[in-house]
TrEMBL record:
Annotated protein name in UniProt: Acyltransferase-like protein
Organism encoding this protein: Mumia flava
InterPro entries with a match to the protein in the record: Plipid/glycerol_acylTrfase
Transmembrane annotation, as ranges: 12-41, 53-82
Domain Phospholipid/glycerol acyltransferase: 131-270
Pfam families per UniProt: Acyltransferase
Keyword Nucleus listed: no
Length: 349
């Protein structure tokens, strides 16, 4: 569903979230927890109702706290006049880092999540430092919250400022909407809803990539959405319909991922030729496709593993055709990495 206009988001949605946090959550949370605890004795699972209600209440309060802090930064910037100043951007990045750290502290405690990450260079070397240059991050997209995990990892572990290109529907979340409009990120409208004159996805990627500094990281999810069997089948069919039978065969041979869209990736490298590329794979959330799946898995008790490999700008292919082939090769590596991770978990299961 398309997000409402800007004024509605700022004057209705944002105050509504703060009102919920102030009035509704404190007055209903205790009642909900008591009822949830009682229902938990009837419904299967380990305190599923209580955990779900707690995380919902926490997220509302978390979102409202971020909105209040963002309003304070707007006032401190001279009611928006100094919003583009370096000190103001640093303040917004620091706020994002603290809010994500708080969110994952709570998620680890409530959902019993464990997150581990490792970056290599594709040759077996581990813990490779990221270069002092712009970074294009291409990541698998599977499971709820994987984008939050990736952004938090870039901020907390590598001190990178994420520049995210994401769907406009995420503007329904007021805190995400306000914060990312003040950072080097952008929301894109799907082609079916795009009005004449609105920038395309590639144009948006080019603009964001061209403005990247040495500590920025452009985050792209080239599969176009969370991996599901239906989407994966449709993507293979689209390749065949487009006369790309060889790529369709390769995509069918990768059971864990969807075939990547290479256009945005090539556009990013054209706009930021000095950028290195970090390919990110992860596993642990792919079974969580529907709300029913998430409910069944609560508490998740999961280890989420991130693996990445870095390619410097000098080792990247020079043109669009070779970049598309290179990206498919990387996705084959992502698929193989996921298969290997799942095999390691089989004995434990």
């Amino acid at each position: 569903m398309a997000p409402p206009p800007l004024l509605v988001r700022r004057l209705v949605l944002a105050p509504l979230v703060v009102l919920l946090a102030i009035v509704v959550v404190p007055t209903t949370l205790m009642f909900a927890l008591v009822v949830g605890a009682a229902l938990t004795w009837v419904l299967p699972g380990r305190l599923r109702v209580v955990r779900a209600l707690w995380m919902l209440a926490f997220y509302i309060v978390w979102d409202a706290a971020a909105l209040v802090a963002l309003f304070g930064l707007w006032v401190a910037s001279g009611f928006g006049l100094a919003m583009r100043q370096p000190w103001c951007r640093r303040a917004h990045v620091a706020l994002m880092r603290r809010m994500l750290a708080l969110f994952f502290w709570q998620a680890r405690w409530t959902l019993r999540l464990r997150i581990i990450a490792d970056v290599g260079d594709g040759t077996g070397a581990d813990d490779v430092p990221l270069p002092d240059a712009p970074l294009v991050v291409v990541s698998r997209h599977a499971g709820p919250g994987d984008s939050f995990i990736l952004v938090n990892w870039l901020l907390a572990e590598h001190d990178r400022v994420p520049a995210i290109v994401l769907k406009d529907t995420l503007q329904w979340d007021p805190a995400i909407d306000v914060l990312l409009h003040r950072l080097p990120s952008a929301f894109v409208t799907p082609a079916r809803r795009r009005r004449p004159g609105q920038p395309s996805t590639r144009e948006t990627i080019a603009r964001v990539a061209a403005d990247m500094g040495p500590q920025d990281a452009l985050v792209l999810f080239h599969e176009g959405g969370n991996v599901t069997p239906r989407r994966r089948t449709a993507r293979i069919a689209a390749l065949r319909d487009g006369g790309q039978e060889a790529l369709a065969v390769r995509a069918k041979a990768m059971p864990n991922v969807m075939a990547p869209h290479a256009g945005g990736f090539a556009t990013a490298l054209d706009a930021a030729p000095q950028a290195s590329v970090l390919v990110v794979a992860h596993t642990g959330l792919e079974r969580l496709v529907t709300l029913k799946d998430i409910w069944r898995e609560l508490p998740m008790d999961k280890t989420i593993t991130l693996g990445g490999w870095l390619t410097s700008s000098g080792d990247l292919p020079p043109d669009g055709v070779s970049r598309a082939a290179w990206l498919f090769d990387q996705w084959a590596g992502v698929d193989a990495w996921i298969t290997a991770q799942n095999r390691q978990l089989e004995p434990e299961a």
